[in-house]
Specification:
Number of domains: 1
Strand content: 35-45%
Order of helices and strands: EEHEEEEH
GO molecular function: DNA binding
Radius of gyration: 18 Å
Shape: globular
Organism: Geotrypetes seraphini (Gaboon caecilian)
Number of helices: 2
Protein name: Membrane-anchored junction protein
Helix content: 25-40%
Distance between the termini: 48 Å
Number of strands: 6
Largest sheet: 6 strands, mixed
InterPro entries: MAJIN (IPR027816)
Pfam families: MAJIN (PF15077)
């Protein structure tokens, strides 16, 4: 089931249910332009959703990684109030993950630089 659209480029906090766990995700953006066109929103949402899946899949060994448009810097921080919280889905109690998953997202400027270089090299006057 797809996630609701992200508030890109505004920071946000989300609670995600995966299996028997609940994860708290904070998404923060760096060098991001606020002038994204609506056409890219779907692509951006898909990339961010895939990035969250990658973080969850590598939760015990987080490393920076790149997508087509972004560089993602994932890290964890102790979730201080986790012991005071209870989550339930239907009749099943869920276990909160003891860390907040933080994703710092930046534009993949390396990809943009390559694209600009290729366009420059392909110009007819070159």
């Amino acid at each position: 089931m797809p996630l609701k659209p992200f508030t890109y480029p505004l920071p946000e906090t989300r609670f995600l249910h995966a299996g028997t766990h609940v994860y708290k995700f904070k998404i923060k953006y760096g060098n991001i332009s606020h002038n994204e066109d609506a056409q890219n929103k779907d692509c951006i949402n898909k990339e961010l959703e895939q990035a969250i899946r990658a973080v969850l899949g590598n939760i015990d060994n987080l490393q920076p990684f790149a997508t087509k448009h972004f560089i993602i810097f994932p890290y964890k921080s102790k979730w201080e109030s986790v012991s005071k919280l209870r989550f339930k889905h239907g009749s099943m109690f869920l276990v909160p993950y003891p860390y907040v998953c933080i994703m710092y997202v930046e534009m993949n400027l390396f990809q943009q630089d390559i694209l600009l270089d290729v366009q420059y090299c392909l110009r007819p006057d070159r």
